[in-house]
């Protein structure tokens, strides 16, 4: 009987961690899982391709692996046509975030900008960050170095201390990917909006309606410095005129929610709403094949059926199933009771009381 354990709890140091196998494809951050057959055909040097492969599966093209329902396709197209955000609600693990990556991949819209929301997130976090303290420290340091010199130290450009957030970057004027072609929208994923404080959904209203925002720190000096060069969330430098950012092509924005709270009607009317159901038989089989291959679907048929036969209303995420399939495959040489115990641990319902 093989021992699959790396950590044995014996308290004796050893180098067993060097025998740790390759990670699951969706937890591979080296990009090694990407290639010609992965989504986008990206190489391991392409972080965009690596992220897409983790999200959509490294073994299959998107058209073979997603199988979205008609209502999902219709909601995405409605949001594209109307230039409105798509508010996607569903249980954890139903593929809400993956939908943004799927659209970006199929339409060739580049890297998905991700804005993860927590209870302390404010609108400005998504628009831009100004490092006022860093600028003040640099000015003081330059003065100290200059000493009694009659030549005043050069003032650092204010743009060096500004960086656009994911939402601010998505609202930049779009640039055509090719000459004589229409510019393309960016894709922005606003992840878990229901985790925000009570004000953020309302604070988003004007920005989502107008497609623009201002940077007061740049507006104040626009008469002296009409153009400032700042960093984007992608790490690129862009020029901003007059302290105002205004989109020319409204981005494709996906707002996700686990349904843990209600949103104001003013936000809901500005969004296309989609309730994402858990994956069905066909979708689940495609997801497993995309991430782990056809053999995993056959060998893990019992676990797949257990997932599909879960009680109505019981919350078990799809990635829990993928974790269980991956680990039980890697422990095929151990006794059945151990494998069952691992599957039970990994497939624990998220709504089960502790």
From TrEMBL:
<feature type="domain" description="AAA+ ATPase">
    <location>
        <begin position="82"/>
        <end position="280"/>
    </location>
</feature>
<feature type="region of interest" description="Disordered">
    <location>
        <begin position="1"/>
        <end position="51"/>
    </location>
</feature>
<dbReference type="InterPro" id="IPR027417">
    <property type="entry name" value="P-loop_NTPase"/>
</dbReference>
<dbReference type="InterPro" id="IPR003593">
    <property type="entry name" value="AAA+_ATPase"/>
</dbReference>
<dbReference type="InterPro" id="IPR011704">
    <property type="entry name" value="ATPase_dyneun-rel_AAA"/>
</dbReference>
<protein>
    <submittedName>
        <fullName>AAA family ATPase</fullName>
    </submittedName>
</protein>
<dbReference type="Pfam" id="PF07728">
    <property type="entry name" value="AAA_5"/>
</dbReference>
